[in-house]
Amino acid sequence: MATTPIDHGGLHELVELYMLGALTSPERVQFESHLKTCDECQARLKALSPVVGALAQAVPQVEPPPSLRARVLSSVGANVKEMPERAPRRTSLFVPWLAAAASLVTAVALGGYSIAMRGRVTSLEDRLRDAARQLALSERQIADLRRTSAQGQFQMAVLAAPDLLRMDLAGQPAAPRSAGRAFWSRSRGLLFTASSLPALPSGRTYQLWVLAAQPAPISAGLFKPDQAGSVTTIFETPIDLPQPVGMAVTIEPDGGVPAPTGDKYLVGQ
Amino acid sequence: MAQGDGDALAELYDRYARPVYSLALRILRDARDAEDVVQEVFAQAWRHAARYSPARGVVAAWLVTLARSRAIDRLRARKARPEGASDDRPGLQFIDSAPPIDHQLLSSEQVTRVRAALEELPVLQRVAVELAYFEGLTHVEIANRLEQPLGTIKTRIRLALGKLRESLAGAV
């Protein structure tokens, strides 16, 4: 990669990217040599250091498996006199487990277009806070929240996939104000988001179709938007799914159908 | 921690395995890979024990920073990226050139504030920060991914870190 010279003023603006490890290699080399002689950048770097530490600590806290302790200690040949039976000491730095469960939700990485998801997470989080206050949080709720959290992270994983393909879907005459967007990665699945979809009649569902270079559309899955007509969801598409050349959304009977029968509401190519 | 002091390593592990493991798991989304990272991090702490300040909080922050770097390395290796953009950016270089760690781990109140501040960030700012920190993408890759001009991503990240910093400044 060719090194593009960056003027002195421009270098000052790279502190944040440097802290996050987000500079390209040539930029990093240039910035580091600048840093040696720039007190101002050194000071800003120091001030930002706790922020990056905070990002690391803001992730959901998960206890490592107990077997890992012995593996780590023996791997370095540590001569430990005694393996304490006590549970790992909980440092005062970390919130109790109930609050940690709440953090599963707040620390979710939301996809760039998943506003609807964000709303759901916020409301789930509020519910969790209430429940925590009453100390009456059921295991079931925690499981639900974990799923929500996992989905948020999965959305981010799709968006970060190296083989990402994006497709915009436009509203059709049946739903002129609707719009959708799909991100597809062979390795990570399909992230679909849409807004302003008409409310579904009872007993009906939306169905997303993938059009590939073969005669029949392939069903990617079913979804139901929220009251505002918004939806953000992940479909785990088969790894052998042909590269999509188009997508379409139809309304079908509950449970879905093997081949589209209803009007098209969204179409993308 | 002096080398050969296995008890000290055990104590370090008992205190900090959880944040190290949690971060690696968040980045790699795979328990076995995350365990490998924990092992590497503590092995390195063991080997380089003499080089680092004994101040506990500083050691902890160093462990977490190393965990992030190791996890991102694995993520990149796993991706086998076609553009090869990160091939010239091996993790050890990153660590050796990483900014000096001169902060302590945060209090639980600070962590709570940071989480709230993250939650309040505009979506684009938040996604840009997360793609950089948790997915190891460069700002150029992030701009391509989000179909935004380069300068926009740079600005969003600066704004986001500024807000997170303010949220920390308010918490003592």
Estimate the global geometry of chain A from the Cα principal axes.
elongated
CATH class of the largest domain in chain B: Mainly Alpha
Instruction: Tell me which CATH architecture of the largest domain in chain A applies here.
Output: Sandwich
CATH superfamily of the largest domain in chain B: RNA polymerase sigma factor, region 2, helix turn helix motif
Number of domains of chain A: 3
Order of helices and strands of chain A: HHHHHHHHEEEEEEEE
**CATH topology category name of the largest domain in chain A:** Immunoglobulin-like
Number of domains of chain B: 2
How much of the sequence lies in strands of chain A comes to: 15-25%
Assign the CATH topology of the largest domain in chain B: Rna Polymerase Sigma Factor, Chain: A
Radius of gyration of chain B: 17 Å
CATH top level assignment of the largest domain in chain A: Mainly Beta
SS content category of chain B: mainly alpha
Lateral strand order in the biggest sheet of chain A: 5-4-7-8-1-2-3-6
Poorly predicted runs of chain B: 81-102
